[in-house]
C-alpha cells in the first residue's frame, strides 16, 4: 500500500514570537499577547517564558497579570501576524501545492508526490523548518507521519523547536505510551469516563473492542477506536475556502454611546475588508454580534445582493444592522463577521458600476499606503 506522507507544521508561540523577533528587547522577558492586563480580554498567545508562570491561551488577562505582573502585555496585531503567515505559506508552497491551513500558525502539507523532486519526507520537513528559521527568524515544530492525526500529534510532542517522525512500522510503539487525552475527541468528560474504566493510555484504549467503545460513546466511540490504532483516512484539503472572516472588540468599560460604537464598527469593517482583499476573498452575508453588560448576546445578519470586499459596503450594512439593536443597556462587546466567502466572482453590471469601480481603486490605494507606511499612516473617517 502506498502510504501518504503528511507534514504538520505548528509555529511556536506564534504571536508572541513575532513580537519578540520584531523587538529583541523582549527576548529575555515573559510576553503575553492579548491586550492590557486590566482588560476583560483573554490571552491570545504567551511566550515560553510566560508559560513558566502557568499562563496559557484563553486565560483571562487579569489572571495572567496576577500570575506574572512583570510580564510584557501587548495588544493583538492580526494584520502583522497574517502577513507573516502568508510568508510561511509561501515556503510551504515551494514543496507542495497541497497545503491545508488550520489557522495563521499551523498547517498540514501532503508531500506524497514531492519526494521525487525534493528528497525524503524527513529532508523536506527539516528543510521547511530550517527555512522558517533562516528566512523569518522564527521557530516551528514539525511532525512527519502517514496521516493527519499522527503528524499533528508528532508536532506537539517536543515543542518548542521540535521535529518528530512517526515511522509507518512503529505507529503503535509511538502511540501506546501516550495518555488518552492526546486523542482527538477526548475532552474532559470523555477522559473522566475512560479513567473510571482504568483506561489511561492509548495502549489501554486500543485493547478495548470497537463495539464496546461504540456502546459507550456512540459514533465517536468508533473514531476513538480507529485513532487508537493510528488510522486516519482524511485527506489534506488544499482547496478548502475559509468559511468566514470576522473580528470583535471587548471594551474595557461598557459603552452605550451609539456614535462611539459605530466608530468602532468602522475600524472592524476596515480590518475585515483588508483581510478579505489580502486573501482574494469576497463575502455576501454580514453578521453583527453584540454582547450586553449582563452577558446577553444578540446577533443580526443580512445577505447582500452581490459579494463584496469593500470597507464602505461592509460598514454601511453593519450600521444598518446595528440600528436594529436596542441600546437600553450598555455593550461590553461588538463584532462583525463576513460569511459565504468565495474566491470566484464576477462584477455585476449596474447603473452604479463606475462609482463602485472608483471606490475599489481608492481602497486599493489605501491598502498600498498602509502596506508601505504602516497601519496608522491613513485612517477611514465615518461618512454615514
What distinguishing features does this structure have?
single chain, alpha+beta, DNA polymerase, domain 1, Dna Ligase, domain 1, 5-stranded mixed β-sheet, 12 strands
User: Order of strands across the widest beta sheet?
Assistant: 5-6-1-7-8
Number of distinct helices:
15
Structural class: alpha+beta
CATH topology of the domain at 244-383: Dna Ligase, domain 1
Order of helices and strands: EHEEHHEHEEHHEHEHHHHHEHEEHEH
The helicity comes to 40-55%
What is the rounded distance between the termini? 63 Å
E-strand count: 12
What CATH architecture of the domain at 244-383 would you give? 2-Layer Sandwich
The largest pleated sheet is described as: 5 strands, mixed
| Mean pLDDT value | 87
Shape field: globular
Strand content: 15-25%
Fourth-tier CATH superfamily name of the domain at 244-383: DNA polymerase, Y-family, little finger domain
Quick summary of this structure?
The chain has 15 helices and twelve strands. By secondary structure, it is α+β, with helices and mostly antiparallel strands.
Q: Can you describe this structure?
A:
With 384 residues, this protein is α+β, with helices and mostly antiparallel strands. Among the domains are: 6-11 and 95-120 and 137-229, DNA polymerase, domain 1, CATH 1.10.150; 244-383, 2-Layer Sandwich (Dna Ligase, domain 1). The chain has 15 helices and twelve strands. The protein has helices at residues 14-22, 48-51, 61-67, 78-95, 115-118, 121-136, 148-157, 171-175, 188-196, 202-206, 210-217, 219-228, 258-278, 311-322, 353-373; strands spanning 6-11, 31-33, 45-46, 72-74, 99-103, 106-110, 140-145, 163-165, 244-255, 283-292, 297-308, 331-339. The strands form three sheets. The chain has a five-stranded mixed β-sheet. A four-stranded antiparallel β-sheet has the order 9-12-10-11, covered by helices on one side. Strand 5 and strand 6 form a beta hairpin. Helix 4 (78-95) runs antiparallel to helix 6 (121-136), helix 11 (210-217) packs across helix 12 and helix 13 (258-278) runs antiparallel to helix 14. The radius of gyration is 24 Å and the shape is globular. The N and C termini lie far apart (63 Å).
Amino acid at each position: 500500500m502506498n502510504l501518504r506522507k503528511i507534514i504538520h507544521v505548528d509555529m511556536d508561540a506564534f504571536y508572541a514570537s513575532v513580537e519578540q523577533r520584531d523587538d529583541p528587547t523582549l527576548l529575555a522577558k515573559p510576553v503575553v499577547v492579548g491586550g492590557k492586563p486590566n482588560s476583560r480580554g483573554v490571552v491570545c498567545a504567551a511566550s515560553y517564558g510566560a508559560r513558566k508562570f502557568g499562563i496559557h491561551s484563553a486565560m483571562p488577562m487579569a489572571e495572567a497579570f496576577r500570575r506574572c505582573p512583570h510580564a510584557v502585555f501587548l495588544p493583538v496585531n492580526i494584520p502583522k501576524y497574517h502577513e507573516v503567515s502568508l510568508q510561511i505559506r509561501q515556503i510551504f508552497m515551494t514543496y507542495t501545492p497541497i497545503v491545508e491551513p488550520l489557522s495563521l500558525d499551523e498547517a498540514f502539507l501532503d508531500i506524497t508526490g514531492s519526494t521525487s523532486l525534493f528528497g525524503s519526507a524527513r529532508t523536506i520537513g527539516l528543510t521547511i523548518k530550517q527555512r522558517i528559521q533562516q528566512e523569518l527568524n522564527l521557530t516551528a515544530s514539525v511532525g512527519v507521519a502517514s496521516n493527519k492525526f499522527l503528524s499533528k500529534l508528532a508536532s506537539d510532542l517536543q515543542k518548542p523547536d521540535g521535529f518528530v517522525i512517526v515511522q509507518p512500522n512503529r505507529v503503535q510503539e509511538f502511540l501506546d505510551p501516550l495518555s488518552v487525552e492526546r486523542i482527538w475527541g477526548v475532552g474532559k468528560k470523555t477522559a473522566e469516563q475512560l479513567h473510571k474504566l482504568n483506561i489511561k493510555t492509548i495502549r489501554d484504549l486500543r485493547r478495548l473492542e470497537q463495539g464496546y467503545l461504540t456502546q459507550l460513546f456512540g459514533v465517536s466511540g468508533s473514531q476513538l477506536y480507529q485513532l487508537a490504532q493510528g488510522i486516519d483516512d482524511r485527506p489534506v484539503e488544499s482547496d478548502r475556502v475559509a468559511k468566514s472572516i470576522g473580528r470583535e472588540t471587548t471594551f474595557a468599560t461598557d459603552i452605550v454611546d451609539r456614535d462611539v460604537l459605530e466608530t468602532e464598527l468602522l475600524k472592524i469593517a476596515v480590518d475585515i475588508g483588508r483581510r478579505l482583499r489580502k486573501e482574494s476573498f469576497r463575502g455576501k452575508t454580514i453578521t453583527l454580534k453584540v454582547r450586553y453588560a449582563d452577558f446577553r448576546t444578540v446577533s443580526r445578519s443580512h445577505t447582500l445582493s452581490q459579494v463584496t470586499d469593500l470597507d464602505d459596503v461592509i460598514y454601511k450594512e453593519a450600521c444598518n444592522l446595528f440600528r436594529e439593536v436596542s441600546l437600553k443597556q450598555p455593550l461590553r462587546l461588538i463584532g462583525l463577521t463576513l460569511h459565504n466567502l468565495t474566491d470566484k466572482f464576477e462584477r455585476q453590471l449596474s447603473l452604479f458600476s463606475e462609482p463602485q469601480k472608483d471606490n475599489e481603486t481608492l481602497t486599493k490605494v489605501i491598502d498600498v499606503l498602509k502596506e508601505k507606511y504602516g497601519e496608522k499612516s491613513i485612517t477611514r473617517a465615518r461618512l454615514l
